[in-house]
Amino acid sequence: MIRFFVFAFIAASSLFADDLFTPLTLHRIAGSGTDTIDAVASDAAGNIIIAGATTSPDLPVRNAFQSTLGESQIMRTTDGGKSWQKLALLPASAVATIEPHPANPSILLAGTADGVFKSTDAGNSWKSTFAFSPSPVPVAGRSVFRIAFDPAQTAYVYALTSEGTIRSGDGGDTWARVESGIGGVSSFTPILTVDPLGSGTVAIGSVFGVLLSKDHGITWTPLRIPPPGFSPSVFAFDPRQAGRLYYGAGPGTIGSFYTSDDNGNNWIQRAAPGNSLVTGLAFSEKPEAIFALTLGGLYRSDDKAVTWTTVTPNASFYYGTRIAVLPSTCPSSLLASAGSRILLSTDAGRTWTSGPFSDVTDLSAGSGCSLYAARRLSGDAYMAKLTPNGEVHWLTYLGGGGREITSAVTTDPAGNIYLNGITDSPDFPGGSSNQYATFLTKIDAEGAMIYSRIIHSTNPVRFAADAQGNAYVLTVPRFDGPNPPPASYAVTKFSPSGDVQYQTPLTDQPLAVTANSQGLATITTSSAILHLDAAGQLLGRDESSPYRNATFLITDAEDNIYFVGASTDPAFPVTILAEGRSHTCPTYSTTSSVRPGDTYIAKQSLSGEILFSTLLAGECASAPASMAMGPSGAVVSLSTQSNGFPLRYPLATAGLSGAGSHSVIVSLTNDGTIDFASYTNATTGGPVTVTADGIHPAISTSLVRLPAPATNTVALHAVNNAFSQASNGIAAGSLVALTGVNLGPDEPVDLGFDTKATLPTELSGTQVLFDGEPAQLLRASANLIVAVAPRSLRDAITTQVEVVRGGERSNSVTTRVRSNVPQLLASDFPEVNRYAAAPDGAVLNSDGTPNSATNPAAIGTTVTLVLTGAPDNILYTSFDNYTVPVAAQPIPGLIDSVRQLAVKLPATAATNRLTVSISPNPTARFFSPILASRPVTVYVE
Known about the structure:
Elements: H1 2-11, H2 18-21, E1 25-28, E2 39-42, E3 48-54, E4 74-77, E5 85-86, E6 95-100, E7 108-112, E8 115-119, E9 127-131, E10 144-149, E11 157-161, E12 164-168, E13 176-177, E14 191-194, E15 202-206, E16 209-213, E17 221-222, E18 232-237, E19 245-249, E20 256-260, E21 268-270, E22 278-284, E23 289-294, E24 297-301, E25 309-312, E26 323-325, E27 334-338, E28 341-345, E29 353-354, E30 360-365, E31 371-375, E32 380-386, E33 392-398, E34 404-411, E35 417-423, E36 437-443, E37 449-455, E38 458-465, E39 471-477, E40 489-494, E41 500-506, E42 510-515, E43 521-525, E44 529-532, E45 538-542, E46 552-555, E47 561-567, E48 576-577, E49 598-604, E50 610-616, E51 622-630, E52 633-640, E53 662-668, E54 674-679, E55 688-691, E56 694-699, E57 702-704, E58 715-721, E59 735-741, E60 749-750, E61 766-770, E62 773-774, E63 776-780, E64 784-788, E65 798-805, E66 808-809, E67 813-816, E68 823-824, E69 843-844, E70 862-868, E71 874-879, E72 882-887, E73 889-890, E74 899-904, E75 913-919, H3 924-927, E76 936-939
């Protein structure tokens, strides 16, 4: 009966995509640190500018105005933090701790993710004295977390590492492992300290407790820790009273604190400062005080930890940070690491100021008034100008001792380059800032700096440059409260030489800016489109335009303005509709980077006429990431949750990244029609630019040159599951739908499911090739082919698909291959509507008759579903919250690409319509909806 039913019904993954995009790579940034490409642009000659952030000290600079990284992992001050000296870079990936010699300022030891490094020339050079065993892959959490000299016998040095304790008997030149019984530790409150009074006692600690050694680490004795024996968070010897110890512990963030006056034989519980976990202790000589770093702030005791007073109640001192105290004769007596930034005090902790750089990992006081800060390299900006064939014309760093984040880059007709971003470097070229601020740097075509400007206490939003070389920068204030004050937003116009022409306050949050050849600026804000004259005066305010929330603006050579943004308006006006509207996404979550909505692009003439308006929409949400103007129209890079985004001559379908969010590149002609749209292997849209040689997106750290849009007469646009048009991958042996233009005969040829002979590999002069292997064909027409994915793809990750019609080949499309992507047959097959939420299913009732609204199934009976894309294993059939495991079975007399599921309906139903879906595991529809099938409707009574 099922044979008759099916016949009558129809007759009436970045892992593997490098193979695709690596050959297209024009240039790759590959230093020894972390590199990004955050912005790209091109000039009139076809040169390409890339910009981003880097922690690599070894980028291949060329013709650079800044030839070295502006940062250092080790900073030193001798004047209480008024000025800081950068020490030489270590050849290490991350510096966790710095320990100066107690008496010799020339000797420094640094603990890193690679091991221990030593300097004997005050940090001008470094050599490795202990290295972790080589590993073919990075080891998470591997580091040297603490180093301590014995102040009485400085030849003895100890280090606490993620792989155990090590010690040196020659000042850190060589190291040996210590058999202490405590294994490796983590960055969570590492404990390593040596008695400062010279007894030679060293203490180490971990989650298991504290051990003491009095023979330079040969033997170890467990310290009697006070009950209830929580993991220790801090341990210290009092530098002014022999035998006095301090100990802190606690569950989670709640702290317990104890003191002992007899070397730990007896303990007295004290009030924990702020009832919080203590993570660091330090002692000052004058006044005689104890300072405690806690997870709730900084506290001070003037009575040997009996009582505590609050110093900084709201500072967040993270696990593993330290406090350092300098002698009272020094300009600054107290310094602390709060989270990742240094706090400084010149009045014994009564008042505090913030230090000049971020990403601090450790502090340590040295001899005299020297203090050292270890820090993570947070990144400089860099820029490179590439010739059209990808060779480096010039490459330069741009940054100071803090962090730089690049935002955008653009060019003007003269070939000048403008870079916009954020800095908190006190020595940034052209200005300084101890807190994040906006920078704008202008460079000429040969790589020489023209100017660099700082807009203090602001974050950049967007910027633009006009044909005369003026630059327009949108900024928002750095403001800690939830609602910025009115008129605190601004647009600043800089002249070609960097002078401020105007700084116009804006009452609405700015989103994007562009300027035409007459110097007139157009700004979109949270509620309006603003038009400013060349002096920054308001010419007009449009609060009714549907494009007022555009997040990207660009002006072409004819002074037409392109607006790009995202809209959830179901009545959004369009003159050209590429394919459908989504506005909501069933897989959207609050943590997703892609908010509900469709990407729009509109072109407006200088007079205000809308030349075109179109939506770029799949079945799910999309949002623009960047845009660029090319010789023949606009190109948009966007992020989408759609697996079925409408494609044109694509290089790849969705799912290459294996994630729920994807990157798509869309190219439009001057009249707004799409001439190219393809997925990349990235999870989110990135920067893109266009030259006469092609479209150039940045994918990870590579700049790619996409081939010119194909013009094949036979055009292959999508490779999907045949039962649902789902684009999350195909399975070996499943039915696959290929859609496009001129794929097959004008009159459809359909062989049906119950063919008794072997399916042919050619229908009416049409073939489908998977990696060059001809596939069996079930149906062929001009815009749709249904083929059987070869079983030889069972172990493949991707496959390249082509259609050959009458000897002419289509474009080649790379598609993800999955082992199990089941989809249910519905009444709309074979011309499937991918946007249908739950079409009527091709379902047989228990008596063998087709299920329908007029022939419903009885609740609790067994119905039969038809599917493709699943092997002969257990699947999970879900009716709302009711899930049933069931095995897919062959259907006698029908082709092997279809299977059947006999499923028992739930015993109750709220309505006469049940929606059913299947997935390879019981939680896929909740946590991996990409693997769950399109639901179909089953009618019940």
